[in-house]
């Protein structure tokens, strides 16, 4: 599914729903701080978010339960990619340089991040190797295993 951009108001509503996980209209209205938007305005935004496939609905009697159809993490990736395209020439390196220059991230933070990613990748590789070994073991030629067991039994009987 191709995501569409959200307006600031649509994004505000989605943030409230992502935080709750699922929500009824009345709960959503209660979540807004003062001055609260008009109910018709919120209803219109909910309709648009359903049309954009950001929300799914479940009718329960006369009311609807709204659930995110797009996870927050997925939306965040979409926004970040668009941000990189629009402001950093699609370059993560340029973004990183600005983060460093503006002291929003330190080189120490970056080094720690790289170390933790390396440790995670190593653990993941080790886990995959264990899984591959297990798959080989359970899919290996069963006849040879049976022959080895039979030989062991014969040796044990001779003793």
TrEMBL record:
<keyword id="KW-0805">Transcription regulation</keyword>
<dbReference type="Pfam" id="PF03965">
    <property type="entry name" value="Penicillinase_R"/>
</dbReference>
<dbReference type="GO" id="GO:0045892">
    <property type="term" value="P:negative regulation of DNA-templated transcription"/>
</dbReference>
<dbReference type="InterPro" id="IPR036390">
    <property type="entry name" value="WH_DNA-bd_sf"/>
</dbReference>
<keyword id="KW-0238">DNA-binding</keyword>
<comment type="similarity">
    <text>Belongs to the BlaI transcriptional regulatory family.</text>
</comment>
<dbReference type="InterPro" id="IPR005650">
    <property type="entry name" value="BlaI_family"/>
</dbReference>
<protein>
    <submittedName>
        <fullName>Predicted transcriptional regulator</fullName>
    </submittedName>
</protein>
<dbReference type="GO" id="GO:0003677">
    <property type="term" value="F:DNA binding"/>
</dbReference>
<keyword id="KW-0804">Transcription</keyword>
<dbReference type="InterPro" id="IPR036388">
    <property type="entry name" value="WH-like_DNA-bd_sf"/>
</dbReference>
<feature type="compositionally biased region" description="Basic residues">
    <location>
        <begin position="143"/>
        <end position="159"/>
    </location>
</feature>
<feature type="region of interest" description="Disordered">
    <location>
        <begin position="135"/>
        <end position="159"/>
    </location>
</feature>
């Amino acid at each position: 599914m191709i995501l569409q951009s959200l307006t600031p108001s649509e994004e505000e509503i989605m943030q409230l729903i992502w935080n709750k996980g699922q929500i009824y209209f009345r709960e959503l209205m209660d979540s807004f701080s003062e001055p609260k938007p008009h109910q018709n305005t919120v209803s219109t935004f909910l309709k648009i978010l359903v049309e954009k496939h950001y929300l799914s609905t479940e009718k329960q009697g006369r009311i609807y339960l709204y659930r995110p159809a797009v996870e927050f993490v997925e939306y965040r990736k979409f926004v970040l990619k668009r941000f990189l395209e629009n402001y950093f020439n699609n370059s993560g390196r340029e973004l990183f340089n600005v983060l460093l220059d503006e002291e929003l991230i330190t080189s120490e933070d970056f080094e720690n991040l790289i170390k933790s990613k390396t440790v995670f990748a190593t653990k993941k590789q080790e886990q995959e190797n264990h899984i591959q070994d297990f798959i080989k073991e359970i899919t290996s030629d069963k006849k040879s295993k049976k022959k080895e067991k039979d030989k062991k039994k014969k040796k044990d009987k001779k003793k």
